[in-house]
Design brief:
It is found in: Secreted. Heme b binds at residue 220. The record marks 86 as: Transition state stabilizer. Residues 1-29 form the signal peptide. Disulfide bonds join 59-140, 92-97, 147-342, 227-254. This protein is mostly helical. It has two domains: 49-189 and 337-366, Peroxidase, domain 1; 191-325, Peroxidase, domain 2 (Orthogonal Bundle). 43% of the residues lie in helices and 2% in strands. The protein has helices spanning 15-23, 62-76, 79-92, 123-140, 147-160, 182-188, 196-205, 210-217, 244-253, 276-282, 289-296, 301-309, 311-325, 352-363; strands spanning 224-226, 262-264. A two-stranded antiparallel ribbon has the order 1-2. The longest helix has 18 residues, at 123-140. The protein is globular. Residues 1-25, 27-34 and 352-367 have low confidence and may be disordered.
Length: 367
């Protein structure tokens, strides 16, 4: 039976800097967007069972195969970068990094994809993960690389090929044969309307902190959002934390409640992984409540200010936080499986409902 695991997902700038930011719109920084060495931050420990050279003998070209696929795919569809990154987030914050988000629903119930927070995950991202798995199976001569490792690598490479930092990815995860319940998904993935106290409650339960929360939120520097995710900030009364000019832009995209349109999460550089997301927050141009409150709330405001001023600081912390997130409640060794199809448990796997029935019967002494 799967081991019990905790669920649910996620310092100081000088006062003069904050006064300056409050008095005038912050301009974009001119730092070069380059891969950043994370040596200046303490790296998180590698979880037991994972290593940076896990496939050195069994499939030495595994990372290269994933990298080449993502590079080509993102070149053809830049939106896929955000889609792959978001898949990794939505997997790890619910039941841990076990590729359970990729499982289709079954007779035992709907899968994680049918839960409301996952309804807008990109179909092209799911297809890309299975395409990568197929390529790896051919190159590695069998099921060697897990779907959860593919998710972690594809997310990192999506960041790199949209202009963001590279970082090392510990490998050796196994895939779960069981998806989480819809309620697990709802409790593990904070809503766009969440404020900092609620966000911190979620991330602290899974071993992350304020710096991780702010850095990982920076993934919103790429990608799109539906009007339904932020329309409550516009109607019936505008959220006073939205700058007037940005409010006008949002109402042009979403002129009334219920309009089904999409808007860039970062309107300055929507297809570039950089620190402009934080510049937006300082200028009161964050799209979600969960974005803008990072600057409004004193617990995270200084970190936002630091990342807005220094892209290097953001990139360093993002790499460290992604390594931490990517190791949440991982399955290793005999705890999981390497799925032959990332969308389905391997043939012969006992469904989760049967596992529960067997456990209950055993506890009653029936066998």
């Amino acid at each position: 039976m799967d081991r019990a695991r905790s669920r649910a997902p996620l310092l100081a700038a000088a006062a003069i800097l904050l006064l300056a930011m409050a008095s005038a719109p912050l301009a974009a920084t001119s730092e070069p967007e380059e891969n950043v060495d994370n040596a200046s931050l303490q790296q998180p420990p590698v979880a037991p069972g994972l290593s940076f050279d896990f496939y050195r003998r069994s499939c030495p070209r595994a990372e290269t195969i994933v990298r080449d696929f993502v590079k080509d795919a993102v070149r053809r569809d830049i939106g896929l970068a955000a889609g792959l990154l978001r898949l990794h987030f939505h997997d790890c914050f619910v039941q841990g990094c076990d590729a359970s988000v990729l499982l289709d629903g079954s007779a035992t119930g709907p899968g994680e994809q049918q839960a409301p927070p996952n309804l807008t995950l990109r179909p092209s991202a799911f297809k890309a993960i299975n395409d990568i798995r197929d390529r790896l199976e051919r190159e590695c001569r069998g099921p060697v690389v897990s779907c959860s490792d593919i998710l972690a690598l594809a997310a990192r490479d999506s960041v790199v090929f949209s202009g963001g930092p590279s970082y090392p990815v510990p490998l050796g995860r196994r895939d779960s044969a069981h998806f989480a319940t819809p309620q697990d998904v709802l409790s593990g993935l904070p809503a766009p309307s969440s404020t900092v106290p609620g966000l911190l409650n979620v991330v602290r339960r899974i071993g992350l902190d304020e710096a991780d929360l702010v850095a990982l939120s920076g993934g919103h520097t790429i990608g799109l959002a539906h009007c339904s995710s932020f329309e409550d900030r516009l109607f019936p009364r505008p959220d006073p934390t939205i700058s007037p000019s940005f409010l006008g832009q949002l109402k042009n995209t979403c002129p009334a409640k219920g309009v089904d349109r999409r808007r860039e999460l970062d309107f300055r550089t929507p297809n570039r992984f950089d620190n402009k997301y934080y510049v937006n927050l300082v200028n009161r141009e964050g799209l979600f409540v969960s974005d803008q409150d990072l600057f409004t709330n004193g617990a995270t405001r200084n970190i936002v200010g630091r990342f807005a001023q220094s892209q290097k600081d953001f990139f360093r912390q993002f790499g460290v936080s992604m390594v931490k997130m990517g190791q949440i409640n991982v399955l290793t060794g005999s705890q999981g499986q390497i799925r032959r199809n990332c969308s389905a448990r391997n043939p012969g796997t006992v469904p989760w409902s049967d596992v529960l029935v067997e456990a209950a019967a055993e506890s009653l002494g029936l066998f």
